Amino acid sequence: MSADPVPGGGFAAVFGGAPDGVWYAPGRVNLIGEHTDYNDGFVLPFALAQRTTVAGRRLDSPQWTVHSVLTDETVSFGVDELAPGAVTGWAAYVAGVVYALRTDGFEVGGAELYVDSDVPLGAGLSSSHAMECAVLGALADLSAVDVPVARRPRLVQRAENEYVGAPTGILDQSASILCQAGHALFLDCRDMTGEQVPFDLAGDGLALLVVDTRSPHRHSDGEYAKRRATCEAATATLGVPALRDIGQDRLDDALAALPDDVTRRRVRHIVTENQRVLDTVALLRVGEVRAIGPLLTASHASMRDDYEITVAQVDIAVETALRAGAYGARMTGGGFGGCVLALVDADAVDTVAGAIRDAFASNGFDQPVAFIGVPSQGAGRLA
């Protein structure tokens, strides 16, 4: 959690004077649709109230200096260091955005940037993308460069893929930039068309409990890359552009054509997960929010058994939430740790969160941190 009560309020202490503006981008929760984005599939994220802020001031020279409140570090880089890999650590995400913008023809100039955030780190809530999206907004405005909103998710993805070296899909960036308050974003990751689907939890007496299991979560490790490579190999074997093109009606035939059980299970997760997204959207369109619970739980089982990306902490959190009365629960994010979400009655939040804390204590796990996920507004400018 940020120690700075005023967004950008510490800018003067680091850089002197006042910033030209303050920009923000939120973290996100993916309600359902995991690992479907890089398979040209469907996702359904919403933006969180937790966000990253970037206070910025334009420089006349092509030099970028960024200070992180969370690490209390200041890093500077110039044009010569915009080659992928030249800047490392957390500052690589900032350099990657500059790289993506400039290589795509947007001549953003130098800047001083002051980065703060209350998005939990390493929890699978897209803290890195929140920073990148906020930095992109700041750089575009500081340089008076018109970067169409529709292009921004792809630019952030390029920063991650080409500069940072993380093989991420398009989900996180899109959620951070495009989501609207009170809605979930139904996104087709092939053509980037989206629909704002009403997601009025409070109006139905419900809450979405988000539980940070405090287990390590890493997107750029080898396991994520392995899952993506397996999907790409399967598409080649099946002769389709992407696994999104295998519908439920073709699943059995597709599985029979695959060479091994691991590949079959990976493909089955993607195909069934896409269908679960479509089914969830159909229910939300008619206001049947409670009815999505079993789809959330089925998604978790698929991630656990077929995609094999869960860990003990998230499995126990899901099982405990369901026993405590949740309508449905699942891990959210890329996997191998991170957060669990549970759809609960609003008056049962404390009961479910307490049950999970007790279960973690009994298993010798670090204590989780729970909060209510509120569908919030995507990236913008504060000042």
UniProtKB/TrEMBL annotation:
Instruction: Give one Pfam hit by family name.
Output: GalKase_gal_bdg
Superkingdom of the source species: Bacteria
Q: Which residues form the GHMP kinase N-terminal domain?
A: 93-178
Give the record's family classification.
Belongs to the GHMP kinase family. GalK subfamily.
Q: Which keywords accompany this UniProt record? A: ATP-binding, Carbohydrate metabolism, Cytoplasm, Galactose metabolism, Kinase, Magnesium, Metal-binding, Nucleotide-binding, Transferase
GO biological processes: galactose metabolic process
Against PANTHER family, the record matches this protein to: GALACTOKINASE-RELATED, MEVALONATE KINASE/GALACTOKINASE
- Which InterPro entries does the UniProt entry name for this protein? Galactokinase, Galactokinase_CS, GalKase_N, GHMP_kinase_C_dom, GHMP_kinase_C_sf, GHMP_kinase_N_dom, Mevalonate/galactokinase, Ribosomal_Su5_D2-typ_SF
Q: GO molecular function, one example? A: galactokinase activity
Q: Which Gene3D superfamilies match?
A: 3.30.230.10, GHMP kinase, C-terminal domain
Galactokinase N-terminal domain residues are: 11-58
Q: What is the official name of this protein in its record?
A: Galactokinase
Presence of the UniProt keyword Magnesium in the record? yes
- EC no. given is 2.7.1.6
**Top EC group:** transferase
User: Which residue ranges does the record assign to the GHMP kinase C-terminal domain?
Assistant: 283-360
Q: GO terms for CC?
A: cytosol
